[in-house]
Specification:
By secondary structure, the chain is α+β, with helices and mostly antiparallel strands. It is built from two helices and seven strands.
């Protein structure tokens, strides 16, 4: 009887552990970003290959010619390293980049570089990144 209880207990523990293993959940973007994309052209001010989302920061001119700072949010560094071969030196201060993505609805100068996004080297015309 004791062996049967022990067997059932071990089976229950195993089922719980399997059911609660690692998950790959992610927060949604619904309601945060505009549906249409925005493009800004500027120079790299900072490149941060960090968790949970890497960040590319550009200094660009607004419609009035005033210098403004835009923040582009990319995926996690592991994915960017393995998929694109990127590292801490991929973008350097002063590089001229065209950044296209979905801007935040609240009007701040930040965008997600996911669906419909791209990064283009302005000088060479080379597309460096295309969002899924």
């Amino acid at each position: 009887m004791r062996h049967r209880v022990l067997g059932v207990s071990l089976a229950a523990i195993a089922a719980i552990l399997l059911a609660t293993g690692p998950t790959w959940a992610h927060h949604g973007d619904a309601g945060r970003y505009n549906d249409e994309v925005t493009t800004v052209v500027g120079v790299v001010a900072q490149w941060r290959l960090i968790n949970p989302h890497s960040v590319l920061i550009l200094d660009a001119e607004d419609a009035d010619g005033k210098l403004v700072r835009w923040r582009g949010e990319l995926g996690n560094p592991t994915n960017l390293r393995t998929r694109y071969g990127w590292n801490e030196e991929t973008f350097k201060p002063g590089d001229r980049i065209s950044m296209t993505g979905r801007a935040l609805k609240n009007g701040s100068r930040a965008m997600t570089l996911s669906e419909g996004a791209s990064l283009v080297d302005v000088d060479s015309g080379e597309e460096l990144y295309r969002g899924r």
